[in-house]
Specification:
- By secondary structure, the chain is mostly helical.
- The protein has a domain of 52 residues.
- It is built from two helices and no strands.
- Helix 1 runs antiparallel to helix 2.
- The longest helix is centred in the middle third of the chain and has 44 residues.
- The protein starts with 7 loop residues before the first helix and ends with a helix.
């Protein structure tokens, strides 16, 4: 039985799949952003403990983690357009 390309049920299902795909991409973006910051904070905190330079490495690696997160989001968005 051939499928009708104008079938409203098929069109609705494809629309739902596109919405779910978009939600998945948004979740991935948010997670990659948070992980980049968390890794920077963890590394900065560890280096502060090892060296004794209390807020220096925390601040530096927080900023680097934030920049890495923004870069990841930008690259992902650029690829999808």
């Amino acid at each position: 039985m051939p499928t009708d390309p104008n079938d409203p049920l098929k069109s609705a299902a494809e629309g739902r799949m596109e919405v779910m795909r978009t939600f998945g991409q948004m979740g991935t973006l948010g997670l990659s952003f948070v992980i980049a910051i968390a890794l920077g904070v963890a590394l900065g905190t560890w280096l502060d403990r090892v060296t004794g330079w209390k807020p220096f490495f925390f601040i530096v690696f927080f900023i680097l983690g934030f920049a890495a997160g923004v870069t990841n989001v930008y690259r992902t968005i650029s690829r999808t357009k």
